[in-house]
């Protein structure tokens, strides 16, 4: 799980979240991502709560997380679902 550890470390460093959940959803999509050289994670859901998101629009939050994971996209991360919130905002999880 080297990729998951790298993602978690980077998000913790950049966003100092009070809550961070990484959910690997790659197995649910294996039928349409049939690449023998596929990385260990191709589809990921990130749930993150951070003070850094205060005052940011939903799009700005998503852009910030996407930019943070640029190396993983270059290494084969294919899809990312982001659920980002500031600490004072309600979450579905």
From TrEMBL:
Protein name: Transcriptional regulator BolA
Similarity comment: family membership: Belongs to the BolA/IbaG family.
GO annotation (BP), single: iron-sulfur cluster assembly
Gene3D superfamilies: BolA-like (3.30.300.90)
Pfam family, one: BolA
């Amino acid at each position: 799980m080297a990729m998951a550890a790298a993602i978690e470390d980077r998000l913790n460093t950049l966003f100092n979240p009070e809550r961070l959940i990484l959910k690997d959803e790659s197995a649910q999509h294996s039928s349409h991502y049939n690449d023998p050289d596929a990385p260990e994670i191709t589809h990921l859901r990130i749930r993150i709560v951070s003070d850094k998101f205060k005052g940011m629009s939903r799009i700005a939050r998503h852009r910030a997380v996407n930019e943070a994971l640029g190396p993983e996209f270059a290494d084969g991360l294919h899809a990312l679902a982001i659920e980002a919130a500031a600490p004072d905002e309600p979450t579905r999880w």
